[in-house]
Every structure is written in C-alpha cells, then in structure tokens.
Amino acid sequence: MTEYQNPSLELRARVALDKHGFHNSHSLGQNFLLDEGLLNSLLDAAEVGPEDRVLEIGPGPGVMTGLLAGRCKRVLAVEVDKGLEPVLADVLAGTENVEVRFQDFMKADLDALTGDEPYRVIANLPYYITADIMLRLVTAKHVPESIAIMVQKEAAERVMSSPGTKSWCALAATVQSYGAAEVLVDVPSEAFNPPPHVQSQFIIIRKHEVPVVTPKDERLYLRVINAAFAMRRKTLANNLKAAFGLDQAAAVSALEGAGLDARVRGEALSLQELARLSDVLCDLTAG
Ligand code: SAM
Asked: pTM of the full predicted structure?
C-alpha cells in the first residue's frame, strides 16, 4: 500500500481545522477561501512573482499563504486570531519562507513589520476593516508596491469612483493619490466558507510610478481630503473653517488662492485641486 504523502493545501487545511476543532468567528469575518484553483487564479491575476516579498494580512487557515510561499521570495503573514496557530502550523509545516505573527494588523507597527525593502500586500479580510486597512497602507511611510485585496463590490466601486460623482469620497481620493485601482476577479459567494451575504471582488491598487499629486505637506493634504468630505451638505469653505479653525474670509481666500470657486463643495474637487488647496493652506500656516 502506498501512503498518501502530499495532500493538497486545501485538504491539509480542512483536516487541520477539523482536528483542532476550529470554529469560524463571525465577528472576525472568518469567511475562508480554501479552493486552490480559485486562489491560484487570484495570484495569477495579481501577478505575484518569485522576487516578491509579500505581506499577507489575515491568512486564516493558510491555503493562500502556502500558495504564496511557493510563488514568492518571502511571506510575512499577520493574523489576529491566535486560535489559528495550530492550524497554520499544520498547513504550513515544512514551509521555510513564511513567518506568521499573531497580532491585530491595525495595531501593528507597520514600519517595523515591513522594513525598508519593497513589498506587496495580499489580503482577504473582514469587509468592515478593508477601508481602514487600505487607508493605513496607502498613507504609510513605506507604502507597498501594490495592494491586492478582497472587497465588497460596493467598496470596489467607491475606491474606483471619479471626482464629482456620488461615490467620490475621502477613501477614493486617498487611495487614488497613492495608486490606480482595478478589479481583477469577481469572486462568487459560494467560493467562501461560509459564504458571505454580499458580492465580492478581488481588486488591485498599484502604486503610481510617477506621483499624480505632489503636495508640499502630505499630512496636510490628507487633512484637506478629510475636511473636503467631512460634511457633504456644507460648502468646502464651511468645512475648511471647521477643520482648520479659519474665519470666513480666510477660508474664501484659501479657495480663491487655489483657483476655486468660494461656493464649491468638496466632493467636486479633483486630486490636483485638493493638492493645490493644501499647498495654499500650507503657505498660509507657514506665513
Ligand atoms: N485569507 C484567509 C482566506 O482567504 O481563507 C482568511 C480570510 S477571513 C475573510 C479573514 C481573516 O482575517 C481571518 O483569519 C481573521 O481572523 C483575520 N483578521 C480579522 N481581523 C484582523 C486584523 N485586525 N488583523 C489581522 N488579521 C485579522
């Protein structure tokens, strides 16, 4: 009789989840992807290659992690649920280029995690934190080369929206200042275990090779973006007054200095206009 030596990662994960009596946590959004065919097609679409260092956020039972290990140079996986430790140990046994850290990614020191070398991000996370995770990554000191992430279809539409449309928002402006977003794969609910009640899309955001905006002060620019979308029914002048403690005359003069109408609403502004306004405010606060 020949012994079955090399079970697939999917089988290893199913056996390990069962063996360790793992129960998916709804509050941690644990809808797992175990189908290697599907996961390989996601990695093909994201063009993960042998030179890549990958930060995987939320590896779950580690099927994607194991596939990544076979494709790229090094994987650092950050998982919040310590209950997955024995599962990941079984699934990734014998895999040398993977390190798993058990911590909440939102509280992790990103610079300490990623070091100085270029890195790419892969993530299938609970949908209630995908926006915060994207914001954290695209505003980091050391940004990734790309972020391939599973999101709810509506979130993908928001991230890819254009200025002046209903969906244009602080998330879109911040993400698009960093890179260009594209939908790679529509992933059916049945692919997840258990299936979520929403439609999912695997998207990639690739860092701009040449920045589309170069504000004088990046932090101030991000504050201007947040101010622009703070209260949608108010004019931008009113939002600037609230966010930067300006009086009416100073707010109007900042807008006019940036070549904008004094009655404009924040959600009408392009990235270049937001950056121009940020530069005017930068000069104002410096002077
Ligand atoms: N990537 C795996 C897959 O595709 O099967 C798991 C996906 S599951 C939707 C989300 C994973 O993210 C879970 O393993 C969950 O425990 C983990 N997670 C949730 N919040 C997290 C956080 N703040 N930091 C790190 N991991 C988190």
From this structure: 0.95
